[in-house]
Each structure stands twice: as structure tokens, then as C-alpha cells.
Amino acid sequence: MSQLSALREEIEPWEHFPTQLQEALHLLELVTDPADALVADIEKETDSIEQELQQRESNLLLTGEHSRGNAIVTIQAGAGGIDAADWAAMLMRMYIRWGEDRAYKVEILDMMAGEEAGVRNATIEINGPYAYGKLRSERGVHRLVRLSPFDQAHRRHTSFARVEVMPEIDNDVEVRLDPKEVRMEVFRASGHGGQNVQKNSTAVRLIHVPSGIIAVCQNERSQIQNRETAMRILRARIYEMEREKKDAEVARLRGEALSAEWGNQIRSYVLHPYQMVKDHRTDVETGKTQAVLDGDIDMFIEAWLRSQVGIQAEAGR
User: How far apart are CA 209 and CA 214, in angstroms?
Assistant: First the structure.
């Protein structure tokens, strides 16, 4: 039933386009004077159709197995000290704003504050149609260049943060996870700056012993709720690890050169000495840095998706 509902949501808007176009043409036939008030109505209707068509065309690029589903996004501060922690917090805000602008449900699952500012790492869940399909393009290292607000000499600093994007895995999707291989640790949930905010140990850390993958949740009020959420994150990370292994094997067979992900940023955000955000995979760039940091990243997402069309078709042959 869920698959049927998803297909209906995909097909019905396309079926509605001819009706919308016919209505616009009928209005156009009624116009006798360019100054007629109907002209504004027609322009509004055609703009709406065009925007909807562009959105539907973008969705056609999202053909992955979990593209329609929700996304779990983890941001981890890298090299750069306090500036890196602040940069990780800026990225977290960027993705939260991106989700909220689309009326998606955004929830912070876990967050470890930096010692002086920002966050060392954070995990957020973004629930909405095609959240994972779009945000998977954000996976990789993000680089920031700016005048540091934490440097008394106000020198230019370069900071790095790593973004991981995983699909929320349904329970009916098979993930090889033996409960005997998962170790659970409990601790007290912490607030900003690392201070304990609960007397009881409700926060949960799950460790997948064979792979070393860790999932943490301390956002919920009870240990049981935190364990359930941490298990969802763990299953998603293990699934993503297996998928990356398959992708690496396909790349090896195709003769692609594989490079260390941490050492190669996918995007640079330069705030000084000039204003520019550039995606190094697609060469798409913009000078509207504040808009990007406020969540306007669709230009980068769509360019990456379009760049993958040929690669996915070749991999499928």
C-alpha cells in the first residue's frame, strides 16, 4: 500500500499538467486587451506550471532505491579547532534551514557541543519526500575560508567539516546486524558545553564491534527511546557502509581512480578575500554565500544529480 501511495503521488501531478495547460489556454482566448487583468492571472498560472514542471523533472533524476525516503545527516568538525566546530554548526544550520524551507520535519538526534563554540559532531534527521535522494549529494568534505572571529589577530583561517548522509532504513529492509555484535553503553545526557543535564543515564551509545561503527542518541527523554533511535542510526550506517563497498567495487571494475574522501573537499565556501561558493565536482559556483549558508543549496544538488545520470546509466549496463 505504501508503494502504491508513492506511485500515485508521483503520477497524479503529471496527469494534472494537461488540465492546467488547457485552463491557461482558455483564459488566453478570453483576452482581448493586453491591459486586461486576465493577463496577470495567466502569467501567474504559467509561472506556477513552469515551477512545478521543473520540480517534477528534478525528481526524475532521483532513481535510487531509497531516494524517496528520509535522510539522516551527520556533520563532524575536522581540522581547524574552534573554527572547525563553528563551521560544523554553520553547516548543521544550513541543512536545517534547507529542510524547514521545504516544510520537512527536522529533528536533532544527537549533538556534541564544542569546547568553546559550535559543535564537534551532530546528527539530524530530515523527514520529507526525496530528502535522502537530494541530500546524498552533500556527502563529503566541506571547506570554509574566512577571517576567524576567534582569532584576536583576525587572520584568515581554513576549516573543514565532514558530512555523512544516510537513508532511513525501513524495518523490512534487510541489514546484516547480529544483536550479539552490538555493544550498548549508557551515560548521562549532556547539554551545551558538555555539562550533564540529567541525573539518570538515559543517553545511549551503540557500537557495532566488527566494523567499529558507533551510533549515539541522547535527545530523547528515556533510555529505551534513545536506544531505538540509536539503532535506526546504526542500521543506516551499516547499510551505507555496505553500499559504499559495492560502489567502490563497481568503480574498481570500471578502472576509476579512488581517492581518500577526507583529503578531497567536494565544496569550498570562501568568505574572504572574496565571496564565493564552488562545488568542485560540477564547477557550479555562486557569489551569494549568505543565501547558500541560509539553505539555498538546490543549484548544487541538481547539478550533481544531473552529472550522475550518465554514470548511473553506464553502471546499470
Answer: 9
Instruction: Say how far apart CA 203 and CA 222 lie, in whole Å.
Output: 8
CB 131 within 8 A of CB 69: yes
Give the tens place of pLDDT for each residue, 21-44: 888 888 888 887 777 777 888 888
Give the Å distances, CA to CA, from 257 to 146, 253, 264, 274.
32, 10, 13, 32
Parallel, antiparallel or unpaired: strands 265-270 and 140-147: parallel
Q: Which three cell numbers stand for residue 76?
A: 563532524
Query: Is the four-CA dihedral 244, 248, 249, 253 of positive or negative sign?
Result: positive
- Edge-to-edge strands, sheet with 182-187: 182-187, 203-208, 213-217
DSSP assignment string, the chain: -HHHHHHHHHHHHHHHHHHHHHHHHHHHHH--STT-THHHHHHHHHHHHHHHHHHHHHHTT--STTTTS-EEEEEEE-SSHHHHHHHHHHHHHHHHHHHHHTT-EEEEEEEEE-SSSSEEEEEEEEESTTHHHHHGGG-EEEEEEEE-TT-TT--EEEEEEEEEEEEPPPTTS-----GGGEEEEEE--B-GGG-B--SS--EEEEEETTTTEEEEE--SSSHHHHHHHHHHHHHHHHHHHHHHHHHHHHHHHTTPPP--STTSEEEEEE-SSS-EEEETTT--EES-HHHHHTT--HHHHHHHHHHHHHHHHHHH-
Please count the other Cβ atoms lying within 10 Å of the Cβ belonging to residue 290: 11
In whole angstroms, give the CA distance from residue 220 to residue 232: 14
pLDDT for 92-113, tens place per residue?
999 999 999 999 999 999 999 9
